[in-house]
Backbone:
């Protein structure tokens, strides 16, 4: 075979192989496209199934059920601020309806006394007609009754807030010691309910009674978790609720409860020590505010009152010659008016000073509410004592 024939044979073989290569490539491309299309179809099918499941869930949940859940949540929020919650946290096991009824009856009694006094006052001092009496009674039983009702309810809520705060402070003071004793009992091998029971001491006061109630409830068949949650809801203490929550989580997780309670007790003790140190660091401000309110201000007001009396006496006793055009007019400020202004200013100053000192020392107005009547009484005593002493000192000058 010659060279030309060999070349022709090779070219024919190449031409025969090329179409077969192209066909195989086309087949592979078609298979890839089929796989891609199948993948796209699977994804679309999955999306359609998810959409269908969402629609089925939406159909399954009724709109009325959603509304009920929302109303239930709002009801829990409202109950937090209801009178029943306040009474429970204050330690009163009284029906709120009975309390409301008694307070309303008290307002009616007070209003009756006011009405009787007004009738007696006008009947003995003035001659008024029956129409005037009717107008006064309508005014007393509308405006004044509403004012008395607001004052009584405000006073009652203030009393409840103070009692709630006092219970909170009382239980938080002994909580670290109780948790440490409970931790020691757990490490000794006692179960958690017995550890709580045997950690009770008489010096724990209210906490000891509450733990006794928890123990009685658990003996009666109530779960320890529910009994502890009920105990935590009786107090407006975030520290107590967090401690109980961590204890319950530790019980459910099966961790080392003894070490957990010991760490909680140490954290509470550290925070209480830090608060006392912060209160001690601002003692200088407390002394300055107390001295200015209880001593300096009453004495200066008493001295100013005596100075006003001296000026009044001097201007009234000065004799001016007939040829002199100078004249002393009467002083516009009366001594009685200045005394009323002094007492009012001292009362306001004493109130706000007591509030500031309460916030500095205790961190809250409730913690130092007892300072307010003490500051008012001491301020008035110092003022009237200083006024008497200054009058005796300058008696010869008037």
Residues:
């Amino acid at each position: 075979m010659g060279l030309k024939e060999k070349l022709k044979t090779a070219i024919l073989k190449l031409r025969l192989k090329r179409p077969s290569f192209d066909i195989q490539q086309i087949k592979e491309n078609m298979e890839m496209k089929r796989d891609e299309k199948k993948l796209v179809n699977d994804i679309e099918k999955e999306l359609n199934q998810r959409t269908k499941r969402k629609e089925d869930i939406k159909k399954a949940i009724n709109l009325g059920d959603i509304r009920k859940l929302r109303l239930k949540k709002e009801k829990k929020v409202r109950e937090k601020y209801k009178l029943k919650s306040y009474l429970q946290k204050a330690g009163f096991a009284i029906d709120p309806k009975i309390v409301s009824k008694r307070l309303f009856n008290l307002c009616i009694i007070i209003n009756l006394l006011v009405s009787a006094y007004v009738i007696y006052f006008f009947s003995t001092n003035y001659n008024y007609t029956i129409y005037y009496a009717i107008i006064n009674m309508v005014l007393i039983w509308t405006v004044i009754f509403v004012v008395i009702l607001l004052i009584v309810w405000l006073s009652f809520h203030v009393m409840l807030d103070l009692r709630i705060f006092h219970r909170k402070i009382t239980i938080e003071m002994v909580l670290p010691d109780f948790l440490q004793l409970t931790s020691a009992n757990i490490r000794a091998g006692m179960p958690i309910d017995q550890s709580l029971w045997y950690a009770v001491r008489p010096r724990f006061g209210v906490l000891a009674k509450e733990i006794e109630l928890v123990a009685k409830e658990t003996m009666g068949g109530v779960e320890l978790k529910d009994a502890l949650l009920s105990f935590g809801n009786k107090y407006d203490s975030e520290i107590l609720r967090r401690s109980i929550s961590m204890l319950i989580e530790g019980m459910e997780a099966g961790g080392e409860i003894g070490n957990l309670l010991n760490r909680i007790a140490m954290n509470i003790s550290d925070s209480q020590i830090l608060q006392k140190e912060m209160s001690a660091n601002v003692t200088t401000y407390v002394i300055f505010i107390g001295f200015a309110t209880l001593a300096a201000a009453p004495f200066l007001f008493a001295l100013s009152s005596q100075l006003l009396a001296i000026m009044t006496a001097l201007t009234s006793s000065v004799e001016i010659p007939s040829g002199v055009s100078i004249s002393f007019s009467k002083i516009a400020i009366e001594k009685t008016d200045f005394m009323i202004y002094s007492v009012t200013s001292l009362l306001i100053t004493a109130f706000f000073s007591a509030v500031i000192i309460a916030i500095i020392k205790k961190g809250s107005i409730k913690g130092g509410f007892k300072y307010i009547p003490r500051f008012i009484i001491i301020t008035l005593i110092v003022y009237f004592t200083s006024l008497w002493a200054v009058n005796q000192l300058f008696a010869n000058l008037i």
About this structure: The mean pLDDT is 77. The two ends are 158 Å apart (CA to CA). The chain has 13 helices and no strands. Residues 282-316+330-397 form one domain.
